[in-house]
Amino acid sequence: MATTKPVVVYGASGYTGRLICEYLREYNIPFVAAGRDKVRTQEAIDRIPGIDTIEHEVVEVAHEVESLTELFTGAQVVLNTVGPFSEYGHEVVQACIRAGTHYLDTTGEQDWLIECDEKYSAAMAERGSVLSPGLAHMYTTGEIAANICLETPGLDTLDILVFWKGFPTVASTKTILVNAALSDAFYLEQNRYVEWPADAGLYDVTVPGQHETGLALPWGGTSHPVWFRKDPRVANVKALGGVFDRQLMQGVPLIVQSVLAQVEGLSDADKYKLLHDTAESVRSEMPPRENPRINTSLDSVHASGPLGRAHCVIHGNCNYKQTGVLQAYAAFSLLQQAPRRVGFASGCQAFGHRELLGVLRSFGLVMEPVVTVYR
Ligand SMILES: NC(=O)c1ccc[n+]([C@@H]2O[C@H](COP(=O)([O-])OP(=O)(O)OC[C@H]3O[C@@H](n4cnc5c(N)ncnc54)[C@H](OP(=O)(O)O)[C@@H]3O)[C@@H](O)[C@H]2O)c1
Questions:
Q1: Would the CB of 106 count as within 6 Å of ligand 1?
Q2: Nearest CA to ligand 1 atom 22
């Protein structure tokens, strides 16, 4: 059945989907909460305080192009949180193309971004729709910091770090493992993708605002090399990420190496099964709701050029909430005006980095950026 609501949140039974619905309520946007299981989705939505103050409906939908197209027809914006997106995203984007809606998701998977750009951007652009995978804390907040640095002309190299404190959700854990085991990771050198060594290992990093160093990984390459590859201001991008907890970080390469050894020689279907089973053994339950006193985030960008340097740090909290509000604001914006770019576009390219910063600031999720410019 086609919808009469302007926005569909797909994956609304999940941690991030529910947060998006909460913020859609705050933006006063009627929405459809869709999921593969109506009971689970209804239970998630019923737990949102004040949900009866916004028009909404809960719908069960099969994860196939036909059913998704039917549901999306009549909507203007689809916000997809069903990840890993390299595994489950295709059906949803194809349905958006058929239904003529904008598509946004919460991915941080570099391979999914590259596929979106190469396979679906032209069709979305033809319809005047934006295709914006990856509007989420990882990596939009860092993209905002990078763009603040790039307000100083003449800087062409971005050295990016993202850290957060908390527990990944069920789908995040699957996504991290699937991404680490099945996809290559790239950084950008002179606007070309260069592969990180498979055994890149842990990097010691200086973490702005603390005395202790941190441990970080290329984390699947991140979205930044894809977003900045065709940006005429930028030639080189390297990004590292992780959690603040050093001990936890020390365990990540061990888990990844053990998974890599186990998937060797398996069929694709068996690889996914093994990766999902392993992820569920690490995390099978929804983590607790975020607490700003515990769940902090840090995005730091050093930008440099032959004759200049800039550094921007954004201290924040509750990275899943940051993701929720960014998605809800994007829908709010798209219901009122065209995006700045159609087809494949990052959050900042489609909605503006100063606007997205303002949104995060207005919901108390980030501090005013700490910016230092050297000329
Ligand atoms: N980049 C970032 O900063 C960021 C932030 C937040 C989330 N994310 C990404 O967003 C995705 C969702 O995260 P989450 O926190 O919402 O995870 P979650 O709480 O585990 O929710 C996952 C959602 O996907 C649905 N789902 C899972 N497998 C499905 C399938 N085969 N068919 C249809 N629906 C399926 C689940 O439905 P059921 O309830 O029926 O299982 C649930 O609605 C993950 O890939 C995560 O990495 C990224």
A1: yes
A2: 14
Q: What are the tens digits of pLDDT across the range 188-230?
A: 999 999 999 977 789 999 999 999 999 999 999 999 999 999 9
Helix (H, G, I), strand (E, B) or coil at 322: helix
Q: What does DSSP assign to residue 178?
A: H
The residue among 164, 159, 135 whose CA lies nearest residue 149 is 159
Alpha helices in 167-223, H assignment, sequence order: 170-182
d(CA 76, CA 366): 29
- The radius of gyration of the chain from alpha carbons, rounded to an integer in Å, stands at 20
Is residue 65 within 8 A of residue 40, CB to CB? The reply is no
Give the strand pairing for 7-10 and 102-105.
unpaired
**Separation between Cα atoms, residue 262 and residue 181, nearest integer Å:** 10
Mutation to probe ligand 1, out of 10, 36, 58 (largest number of atoms < 8 A from CB): 36
Q: Whose CA is nearest to atom 32 of ligand 1?
A: 63
Determine the residue of 106, 144, 299 to mutate for testing ligand 1's pocket, defined as the one with the most ligand atoms within 8 A of the Cβ atom.
106
Cβ neighbourhood burial of 374 (10 Å; 0-12, 13-18, 19+): exposed
Location of structure tokens 């990093």 = 205
Q: How far is the CA of 368 from the centre of ligand 1 (A)?
A: 30
Q: From ligand 1's centre to the CA of 295, what distance in Å?
A: 19
The structure tokens listed for 6 are: 């302007």
Q: How many CB atoms lie within 10 A of CB 242?
A: 23
What's the CA-to-centroid distance between 24 and ligand 1, angstroms? 18
- Give the residue ranges of the chain where pLDDT is below 50: none
**pTM exceeding the 0.90 threshold for the entire prediction:** yes
Interatomic CA distance for residues 109 and 224, integer angstroms:
11
The pair of structure tokens assigned to 188 is 């950008």
